[in-house]
Amino acid sequence: MLEVQDLHVSYGQVDAVRGVTLTLEPGQIVSVIGPNGAGKTTLLAAAMGLLPSKGGLRFEGQDLHGLDVEARVERGLCLVPEKRELFGELTVQDNLMLGGFPRKLRGAALKRQMDFVCDRFPRLGERRSQRADTLSGGERQMLALGRALMSSPRLLMLDEPSLGLAPLIVQEILAFVRGLRDEGVSILLVEQNARAALDSSDHGYVLETGEIALSGASAELAVDPRVQATYLGGA
Ligand code: ATP
């Protein structure tokens, strides 16, 4: 579904992603774990078209180079950024509506999609008319996910959904993400929380200083001594 082949992304002189090759099959959760500054956010930004990149980048067989962000959303890609990027002064409902904007949802179609998302996240439904900045951290992450779902993505890219959340809330968010996978949405999950990411994904990649250091089935990576020593606290 997503094929990344020898991808390079630079910020001027800084080579942040250096020859990354990665594959995501339909219906999979693929995680990318690695330390601060490894290039995880940069990889997602390049896949979404927010940064220029060199190398192979294909989605459902189609070359993504040359497609802008909007065209990538139309094809079914969606990114939930690390900082959630919600509009705090707008209501939950208005934030969701903005998620439907790239798909040009209006009228009955917009209402249907909004009801669908609020059914999935009852807490968002209850807080529809509340300002986004009154939500808890977990609810904000749910709103960011709900807003992404407004564009009916086929590949959802999540940048550190666990960031700043209590362990129980992280479990709740990841259970939801697995539910989406089971309904056929493919997920590229970037996480510093290696344990949570490997527990929830089918396949994993370890990114270090812009390069893939290790990859494999998540269950195998979770017992790999190198992953255990560096990312799982030697557990
Ligand atoms: P984090 O978890 O901290 O977000 P990350 O794995 O997502 O880390 P990136 O944010 O992709 O890593 O950063 C990769 C490298 O690119 C780092 O060396 C970082 O300093 C550098 N970098 C990131 N953004 C910029 C920028 N706008 N300009 C210059 N260098 C940048």
TrEMBL record:
It comes from Ramlibacter ginsenosidimutans. PANTHER family: ABC TRANSPORTER ATP-BINDING PROTEIN, HIGH-AFFINITY BRANCHED-CHAIN AMINO ACID TRANSPORT ATP-BINDING PROTEIN LIVF. One of its GO terms (molecular function) is branched-chain amino acid transmembrane transporter activity. InterPro entries: AAA+_ATPase (IPR003593), ABC_transporter-like_ATP-bd (IPR003439), ABC_transporter-like_CS (IPR017871), BCAA_Transport_ATP-bd_LivF (IPR052156), P-loop_NTPase (IPR027417). Residues 2-234 form the ABC transporter domain. One of its GO terms (biological process) is L-amino acid transport. This is ABC transporter ATP-binding protein. Belongs to the ABC transporter superfamily. Keywords: Amino-acid transport, ATP-binding, Cell membrane, Membrane, Nucleotide-binding, Transport. Signal peptide: none annotated.
